[in-house]
Specification:
Elements: H1 8-43, H2 51-58, H3 66-71, H4 73-91, H5 107-120, E1 129-133, H6 139-148, E2 151-156, H7 159-171, E3 178-182, E4 195-201, H8 210-220, E5 221-234, H9 243-256, H10 264-274, E6 277-283, H11 315-330, H12 338-358, E7 361-370
Parallel strand pairs: 1-2, 1-4, 2-3, 4-5
Antiparallel strand pairs: 5-7, 6-7
Helix pairs in contact: 1-4, 2-4, 5-6, 8-10, 9-12, 11-12
Length: 374
């Protein structure tokens, strides 16, 4: 660019405008990242991380079997979410699930569209009573209450998620419409026929068996009403004899607190076996997203610091972040064990990304099912 045709005064003015624009563009993501990091480390007081060794032992195949993990599912899942919840919120936001991004959609818009699509399948009226099975910190429940006008009760096994989620509901002014409670979805603490709709987003994969959780959902749902879910499953492309596929499965289970993953057909059959009428079952990951992004793109590395969560997966940050956390452990800014949790979660992230890119795994096996009238 030939600057000689500009006067000193013009260069100063244009230069100042350029710097101001750059500051405005950069300031917002930087402020968001700084606020999340502050919240992660200081404001919430990062949880006790001592459970990491117990959790890792449960996934050590030389010490524990799949049957052990199924028997001890409640301890394992609760320990996992004690360890992982703050990391999830820091790196992902208040909704703990994947979504494909359609052309022109950003991460947040895709997240909300994915949730409200599922809610739409329940055919709810304003004021309806809805159950969110495995609700996390209630991100989807708040969005769905907002979208449908329904009252949403969320259930999670993890006490920290209940207190954090109800705190967020109060902060966002929806405490009247969304309430999180603690409980085990294998024994739902609700009377028979008490909900107008039930949904579950990437949660019932933590169950030791699908029949148990689906039969509980059937029990609490009113006759004629609908259950809709996105399930984590192995697909037809999964080859049980391939060591590579086995490793992907293992990394997902270990990095995501799952006892054992199963094939899509097993989940659909379990719904039928407990008495649901299955209205639809398909892989929503295969829905058209031409010009957009697959669900696993946020897990692929990027050097762009404004592309969270992808920036965390670039090789430098991937290696550096557990070291930084270890240094913070040594000066007691974060609890001992935090870096091991980060390594465990990274394994889950890589497993999911490879599961998605090879097509052997889907986190959105969509099933919509009705409870028969009698
Ligand atoms: C991946 S998170 C998904 C959370 C939420 N659906 C979302 O999309 O933000 C899985 C959730 O299932 C819950 N969960 C797992 N096993 C459970 C059980 N046996 N009973 C109740 N909640 C359970 C976890 O505590 C966690 O909240």
């Amino acid at each position: 660019m030939d600057l000689s045709k500009f006067s000193q005064e013009e260069i100063k003015v244009y230069g100042s405008v350029a710097v101001a624009v750059a500051c405005v563009v950069v300031a917002k993501p930087l402020c968001v990242a700084a606020h999340r990091t502050y919240d992660f480390i200081f404001a919430k007081g990062l949880h006790n991380q001592t459970e990491i060794d117990t959790y890792n032992d449960l996934h050590n195949d030389s010490k524990k079997s799949v049957e052990d993990r199924e028997k001890e599912y409640a301890t394992m899942v609760n320990a996992y979410y004690d360890l992982a919840t703050e990391f999830y919120e820091w790196g992902w936001g208040q909704s703990f699930h994947f979504s494909t991004q359609k052309k022109g959609e950003n991460f947040k818009a895709a997240t909300i569209r994915h949730e409200t699509y599922l809610a739409g399948r329940l055919g709810l009226c304003a004021g309806a009573k809805v159950l969110d099975v495995g609700c996390g910190v209630g991100g989807p429940a708040r969005n769905i209450a907002h979208f449908t006008g329904a009252h949403v009760t969320g259930i999670t096994i993890n006490n920290y998620q209940v207190s954090r989620g109800n705190q967020l509901c109060a902060r966002q002014g929806v405490a009247e419409d969304v309430k999180l409670v603690q409980g085990d979805f294998m024994e739902l603490p609700f009377p028979d026929n008490s909900f107008d709709g039930v949904y579950a987003i990437e949660a019932t994969c933590h169950a030791p068996n699908r029949e148990g959780v689906y039969s509980e959902i059937l029990r609490v749902l009113k006759p004629g009403q609908v259950f809709a879910t996105y399930e984590w499953c192995l697909t037809d492309d999964y080859d049980a004899s391939s060591p590579y596929h086995q490793q992907i499965k293992k990394d997902i289970e270990e990095g995501d607190g799952l006892p054992d993953m199963c094939h899509t057909s097993k989940c659909t059959q379990a719904l039928r076996d407990v008495g649901f009428e299955v209205l639809e079952a398909r892989d929503a990951a295969l829905d058209d997203y031409t010009g957009g992004e697959p669900w696993y793109r946020p897990l692929t590395p990027s050097w762009n610091p404004f592309l969270m969560p992808r920036f965390q997966f670039n090789p430098v940050i991937f290696k550096l972040s557990p070291m930084i956390l270890y240094a913070l452990e040594c000066i007691r800014v974060v609890p001992a064990g935090t870096h091991k949790t980060q390594i465990m979660l990274q394994k889950g992230g890589v497993g999911c990304e490879l599961g998605g890119s090879t097509g052997v795994f889907t986190p959105m096996w969509l099933m919509v099912a009705r409870k028969p009238l009698k």
